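So, who can interpret the following?
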Amino acid sequence: MKQIFLLIAIAAISISANAQEKPSTGDLYEGLTRKITYDRMIPPYGLEVSFNKTVHVIFPSAIRYVDLGSMNIIAGKADGSENVIRIKAAVRGFEKETNLSVITDEGSFYSFNVKYADEPVKLSIEMKDFIHDGEVVNRPNNSLEIYLSELRNESPKVVNLIMKSIYQSNKREIKHIGSKRFGIQYLLKGIYTYNDFLYFHTQVKNASNVPFDVDFIRLKVVDKITAKRTAIQETVIFPVRAYHHDLQIRGKKSQRTVFALEKFTIPDDKQLVVELFEKEGGRHQTFVVENSDLIRSKVIDDLKVK
């Protein structure tokens, strides 16, 4: 009798184990589950790739994240570019469809279903014209923005829109801050504020015939007066975004840039020094911003954002 009960127990355990190993299919899930409706789905684009040809996809801003659905495809940023991704098949003639996901610097999410084709019809694809420019979009109308760590709780799209609007308005709100040396003029045209960020609108004018190649721009908070034999204390401020930042200003030309920085103020005994360095040259420019200039920054609500 004991042997019969033992056999029944073993059979029950075996059946239970098999039931647990069987994967869920269709709309069945383990535990309490809420079904995702189609209006919450981001419709993916269709993308064909080949083993012998490379497909390039151009995005409107820098690529921050790429995920491949399987090892059947390979992808990576194009050399020397931040917003172009190249995609190829890693396995010739793979049969099962896979997927590709991309997140860009402006907080947009792109989804692709990828399949193999010997001769892909579309080898160079520009995504900029397809996103949020009409009734057909690559996401549901009520979807959330993607937030990036360096922008904290601010939407990347809002930051980009503000910088673009400041650039397009091209107003000179500040007329007393700038430097001019060696035929180069570096101006601070305006300081704007919105939520937890400051926006600096700068302009470089090259009155000479020699192009000015930008090496780097440095912003640092330093002491106004430094006594001799006293260690210099300075805090470097790093912009989190730059709009229309060209690295060369040709002769007799000018260039404007909008920088986004985390909000900060300056103690009375300190000042903000902004330095522009020329690559392999000596026409460096420097200007100073006081705390009184920061606290008079223009509130972005007063700016017409287009």
In short: DSSP finds three helices and 19 strands in the chain. The domain at 156-300 is CATH 2.60.40.10 (Immunoglobulin-like).
